[in-house]
User: Fold this.
Amino acid sequence: MGSLRWWMRITGVFYLVQATIAAIVRLPIRVLAPAGTLEAASGADAVARLLVDTWLLFGLEIAVVGGALILGSRAPERARPLVWLVLALELFRGIVHDLHMIGRGYDPPPFIVWVVIHLVIIATGYWALQRSRVVTA
Assistant:
């Protein structure tokens, strides 16, 4: 159960860092959006405000999942469904979305890096789930 516990803790902290970067630092908007988007959001540009508010919501969602992983790591044997949820989120909200963004014409390198990160999270999480199943069986 130690592998699963540590995977949940490490992934949870990574999610909290990611949430801070998305919602507070707003790095994705700074990198991916047109120049001046954050300034436009401070004004009357409704589309820019929607973009900023959406990234805030996304950051809050990531923070909740990260917090749940950290709390769930206290009893990882009971938190297995949470781990499966995270793996599904990494696959669909992660990899599928990143491939969609590449297909829409965004610059591929940042999205390829994220695909690799999602694959690492999925692979190590699945490994930790399988290892914990063998240990508890």
